[in-house]
Specification:
Blueprint: H1 3-41, H2 43-61, E1 72-73, E2 84-85, H3 92-95, H4 99-119, H5 121-131, H6 136-147, H7 154-165, H8 170-177, H9 192-217, H10 221-229, H11 234-245, H12 247-259, H13 266-270, H14 273-276, H15 278-281, H16 284-294, H17 298-325
Antiparallel strand pairs: 1-2
Helix pairs in contact: 4-9, 5-9, 6-9, 10-11, 12-17, 16-17
Length: 334
Amino acid sequence: MSDTDTMERPAAGRSKVADATRAGTTSGNNGAPGWWRRLFNHKMLLLFVLPGTLVVLCFHYLPLLGNVIAFKDYQPFLGILESDWVGFENFEVIYSGDQRFLNALTNTLILTTMQAVMVFPAPIALALMLNSLFHERVKHIVQSVLYLPHFLSWVIVVALFQQMLGGAGLLNNFLRANDFATVSIIGNSDTFRALLVSQVIWKDTGWATILFLAALSTINSELYEAASVDGAGRWRQTWHVTLPGIRGVIILLFILRLGDSLSVGFEQIILQQAAVGRQVSEVLDTYVYNYGIIDGNWGIAAAIGLAKGVVGVVLVLGANKVAHIFGEAGVYQK
């Protein structure tokens, strides 16, 4: 055995001992020292997200405990703990065929379907059109103009539509001035649902294009060049290159939208409900407000809200499972 071998073996042994000692220091006690060290190393990042985390916990998760009143005859002057248990009695309006509830559910499902067909594809189409603009300056100007309505409250949006389409609005004043018959849009129960959908499209379509434009920017330009060489025109490139490139984002956003599908805009509808009546405008959110809160049926309001949440979770999980079947990541991986 040479002297070199004799010197290398102890060195190798010391190296293994040092590695073991370092590993024990890092992950000893079930990894606690290493875990605390990582927390300390990222303390500024943790402090940065702490306020947002506290807001989410206090205003989103902590109030979930209040869902217990769905199983109680809740009386505000008694409090949650002192109110009597009634089991599933508050859910009776759901399975007993209460006409007011069924009307609200029907209107909700109709509006949900209309928004899924017309509102959800709108930002996709708009993003494709914006992406086709070759002049970047023009593209940025158009994007900025389209983003602006998102920052307006529903009070302002409803007021704008009334000023434009109301009985004494700009459109009807123009028709009167030119001896044409006026049209009844605001306050007309026959056009109310179409009005709601058009308001949502005008307000939020521009803002919703942000994610789709970001997804479009990740598509490799060489794919378009290859498709062009193969003789594909603009439409075939859109169908075979662009849409497959953003399919994952489309499916993800659609799954997330399903979780909130039974909420079709409380503030937007309640501001216009008096003009058309509850028969055509009552949805689950306004039903909870009118019948549950205004009429003092707190337990029923909580029961319907809890049922909505459960349905939303089931829809998200089911849609995510379907996405996995078709090879997409969905909201979360398997």
